[in-house]
Task: structure prediction
Amino acid sequence: MPAGEDNQLISVHPSDLKFIIELGKQSFCDLKVVNNTENHVAFKVKTTSPKKYFVRPNTSVLQPGDSCLIRVTLQAQREYPPDMQCKDKFLLQSTIVPPNTDVDDLPADTFNKESSKDIREFKLKVQYISPSAQGNSGDEGSSDSNSTLQQLKEDRDAAVRQTLHLQQELDLLKRRRQRRNDPGFSFKFATIVGVIGIIVGLVLNLYLSK
Result:
């Protein structure tokens, strides 16, 4: 939990903004803000680089216990920042407002610290992530996926081999039945057919789960 969050009117998740930087493409990060009080709370999002980011909504009013999703969009960049470092910062201000206050009715000085109002502030840092770093993470996920798929194929092949074995045993029983009257044939036949049905079902499930 970030320092001072327990003294906030609202909680913010995540506590940092992370953007994947790809030249010529926008990148976005979602913030979830939650009203931790039994009061109506207004909030406003500010940034040190307002021309680089598009924040919606940047101002709103939360009812008691309510939450809101804020999308912060980083405008398309023409070049990578030096060492992928970012000094941009965001500030989320919040204050208690009268019940049933609409965002359009907020006074101009609602978030003015000189207005003697109790205004809480939550600071967020910005992190830039390179596409290659994101790709490496994706490769790990792909490796796990391939491992799971390989296991499913092996299980499927084992089920197919078992089914063929049971079919061979069934053919053998049929031949024995033709040579002599085997009282237990009907029971064995029904048992093997049932087992084959179960295994065929497993094989179909494995195919569908690929």
